[in-house]
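Quarterly update from the structural biology core.
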Amino acid sequence: MEDMGKKEDYNLCILIIPPAKRVKRITIPLGFLKITTVSVAALALAIILIFSSILISHKSLKDKYNVKVSEINSLMEENKNKDIKIQQLENEASALYEKSSEIQDKLQELEDIKRQLEKIAGINSSSRGSTLSDKAQSLSVKTLDDIQTLEQTLEQKEKEFKIFIDELEKRLEYLETVPDLWPTKGRLTSTFGSRKDPISKKRDFHSGIDIANSRGTNVWAAARGKVIFSGYKSGYGRLIIIDHKNGYKSYYAHNSKLLAQVGDVVDKGQIIAKMGSTGRSTGSHLHFEIHYNGNPIDPLTILK
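Predicted structure, tokenized:
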């Protein structure tokens, strides 16, 4: 008599009945089938997990790659801006050197005339404190005529030198009012002229240039002038407009914070705002415009 408590074994039986031939019977133990099913399921799960891990790793590497590319582009743009600034400083240094050389030449010319005058009058370096009239009393009429001619020449040269200095000062003062200083640091992301609008995706006219950087980056005046607008303007966001009193006006838009107020007279390079993304903007950047006699012009033709 069989033990009723004994667990029965179950098998999977497959019958193959070919025509006119002996029936074939294949028996597969159910335990083996379960083990195979579990193994296949485990293998499939392992493949899915590995594939998912590869996808996640690939996405992470791609994100890191994009970040590095962005950093490299930012560094390249920053290096380009530094090269531009260095070139600007070199040009300014060269201009100042030329002006300094010209001033030295004129001073030397005046000094030569004075020495020539002293030589004719019989004045040496140890007696420069003596008056010209004391020495001139013993000179001939011809010598006195020569001295008078040199004195007139000296006066003329001194007048020319004064005019030259005045013109130089006016020129330097004018250059301080030309908006040729880059108004911030960052990457040049959009130029002047026709472009595809980043919001409407349609062709549109861009009246300035865009310089992108992080929120809070310093924005400074491109030249000396008077602030004629400081506030919020549709499209521009927080905006500052500076009148440079020479036909030029400069616009600084999308700022997060305005530091200069209407009526302020700002110097070239003075911080006037903090970069942001106010108004019609897709990210933190400065929209910079230069207007000449009421019309927008390409800032890149002026910026050094």
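The longest strand covers residues 225-233.
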